[in-house]
Amino acid sequence: MTKYAKLILALVNQSKEHLTAEQLFLELKKTEPKVVQATVYNNLNTLCQEGLIRRLSIEGSPDRYDKIQKHDHLICKMCGALSDITFDDMTRDLEKQLKEEILSYDLKVFYLCPKCRKKK
Questions:
Q1: Is 90 exceeded by the pLDDT of residue 7?
Q2: Pairing of strands 64-67, 53-56
Q3: From 1.10.10.10, 1.10.3720.10, 1.20.120.450, 3.20.20.70, which CATH number describes the 3-67 domain?
Q4: What pTM, to 2 d.p., does this model score?
């Protein structure tokens, strides 16, 4: 694993937020001033392909990156706020319904966050 890949992996795993590639680039630039955006994107793609981080794609927003520890996501339909939530593991139920083994699933629950509910 490259030096930059290790640093990016550490940033993703230590973050309590779901950082975009741009945010990761700016954070990495603080300690590695010579890093370029292409390096960050290439390493993010490699880390995703190797299953060390996961990419969160949400329509209308830039991709965000997250640790691979099992959890799901709440997404506010109005402001796009993204937060973690943990449900019971549904793997067995899904496999029973499909009658097939599944590798993984990514559950995104859309709702209105408390701030947006107040505005409405």
A1: yes
A2: antiparallel
A3: 1.10.10.10
A4: 0.83
